[in-house]
Amino acid sequence: MTISEKDIPFIALNGVSKTYRSGSERLPIFAGLDLSIGKGEFIAVMGPSGSGKSTLLNLLAGIDQADSGSIQIGGQRLDQMGEAARSAWRAQHMGIVFQFYNLLPMLTAAENVELPLLLKSISGRVRRERVSKVLDIVGLNGRGRQSPTKMSGGQQQRVGIARAIVADPTLLLCDEPTGDLDRKSADQVLAMLGFLNRELGKTIIMVTHDPEAAAQAGRTLHLDKGVFVEDEQVMA
Amino acid sequence: MTFWNFARKSALRKPLRSALLIVSVAMTFLIYGLTAGFVAGSQGTAAASDELLGVMNAAGRGQPLPMAYLSRIAALPGVADVSPITRLRGSVGDARNVVAVSAGDPDKLLAVSGADLGLTPSLIDALKSRRDKVLVGQSLAQAQGWKTGDSLTVTAFRTKKDDGSRDWRFEIAGIFEGKNASTDTHFILAQYEYINKARARGIDTVWAFALRPEPGMAAQDLAPQIDALFANSAAPTRTMSEKQFLSAFLSQYADVKRVITLVVGVSFVTLLMIVINTMVFALRERRFEIGVLKTLGFRSPQILLLVLAEALFVFVVGGAIGLVVAKLISLATPPALGLVIGAQVSLRTIALILLLGFVAGLLPALSAMRTPILAAFRTR
Fold first, then answer.
1. Which domain of life is it from (chain B) (predicted)?
2. Cβ A111–B9 below 8 Å, yes or no?
């Protein structure tokens, strides 16, 4: 039996605890959470509101910090990095897709996609080529000059995905990417995420309430009160 | 898209608000440009010379000096040329139409002030052709509609003729243009001998001596030597440069420079408060967006730079508009108004634009830089 790349933990959470302060009380979110995700996996995280899905995503994105435990991604301890290092790490290795797209209205679609590339020392010509390439991947080539405010929700989310992958990250974090879309647009976005996972090898972690969206993933984690209660593996 | 383009687009995201901010900045720097131009021009700091010296009575400008001082001053080593100057102020026609007449020795005036006033040998020859001939500065000639050959009568406020009349009749022998647009040419040049011989009182006295030091002789070194020469005489002198004189003359009425500095300072503080307040509120609306940028990997210093660049954009555009309009106004107004916006004023204005842009952007930029991502996301 050979060990595939997916069997080696790309993401490893060990004993992660997180509490939030609410007035004088401390509300526990996670108490010793463990998680292991292989490289190239497509994971859906489901669970009721308040179960800790968003907190998990924030911890993985390095925009929130655990009280204790370790968070290791691609061999690097995210929990031991300072803020500047985590920002640099996100710019280098991570793409984030938001539920409400979070595109900047004063920029064109192409300029929104180009934003993460402004952080890299690459020429304008290379930047434009990469933007054009990812807009092509998401099926929006020729729409780069359009303002996102004049696009449909589905198109805006595709711009959001293009922005998330333009810097060629290894990890995509998606926060309810279909939560604001109609079924048809949602299916197109899910198909695109599936393509990015299968064809480009992106590791994807998607928080969702939508069972149909979760069905696109190779593995679904059910979170409830800060604990993984079920780990469904879809056999290909 | 470059980082600067991104900042520009961010600054212009609300076009009306951005336009109003830019107009505020433009108005402030228009006021600054005009007042700084006034200080540099009317105060004589641009046109007045540091090299020309004026010798006056130390007891006050209204007090005369004896003409006999002329030869002693002229004999002093380092003095190239010296001319006696006497003044006559009065009105032409309407009592409110006040003019100033400065009378000197024509040849010495050419040597002392010829280059600055734009006097030529032919103009001086025309002046000398008859004792009542005068040269009129271009600015005054334009304002009065006078031309060469015209006659005019100045009714003096104080200087009486020996026949008891205050009416001094002159004929215009020529118009002098001044070295450049900032030169004060709003006066009449007459001959000392004519005024001196015809006046009832103060014969053989002067209001001042104008002198030019020899090349290589520093004016500030010569001035104390002249004053030392007459220190123990009945009429001690006070010697100063033309620039010092004009500055001191204006400060008789008020410290113009200080008043202008205060007015401009207050307008700058007001502008800063408006811009900082607007930018802080604008950024409060954009906290979520700042959170998104940080999530995408923008580091705190980059957020700081972005917001600073936005403030600088508003100041650079607004300041440039204000400065250009001030320059156009200075070119369009008559030289008598004394607005001079030269390289020094322009460079100082540009430095102020950059400094104030930086100061105005700093507070909102620091606030944006310190905003935690999760706190930014909670604002939606």
1. Bacteria
2. yes
